[in-house]
Design goal:
By secondary structure, the chain is mainly α. It is flat, with a radius of gyration of 28 Å. It has three helices and no strands. The longest helix is centred in the middle third of the chain and has 41 residues, at about 45-85. It has one domain (about 1-35, about 45-115). The termini are far apart. The protein is about 80% helix and about 0% strand.
């Protein structure tokens, strides 16, 4: 009886050791990430603030690009739905369609610029 109990504790201990060691072994095979271009030199606060501002502006451009693209896509879907169901006038559908196309174009441009920097 004691040997079965001892074998269970040994098995649990081995399982716990494998659980603790598994992430370290998995991360050992992952290469180190490259140093970002905005990493400042040692004790250079101005370069650090410039890097933070640059990163924040890239994130802002990504957010604006996504919002413009989504609003443009919703407007295009609305315009196509209005045309297919004959509910909207030609002028209204054309205005919304052109504004949506411009939103998609500017959104795509913003996303391209932000992801090109990243």
């Amino acid at each position: 009886m004691l040997s079965r109990f001892g074998n269970r504790w040994t098995s649990l201990a081995a399982l716990a050791a494998a659980y603790v060691a598994a992430p370290r072994l998995a991360l050992a095979a992952v290469p180190a990430p490259p140093t970002p271009s905005t990493t400042p030199g040692s004790n250079d606060a101005i370069a650090w603030f410039e890097g933070v501002f640059e990163d924040a502006s890239e994130v802002g451009i990504l957010v604006v690009g996504v919002v413009l693209f989504v609003i443009g896509a919703i407007g295009m879907i609305w315009a196509v739905t209005q045309v297919l169901t004959n509910k909207g006038t030609v002028g209204d559908v054309a205005k919304i369609g052109l504004a949506s196309a411009a939103g998609i174009a500017f959104g795509t441009y913003a996303l391209t610029q932000a992801t090109g920097v990243i």
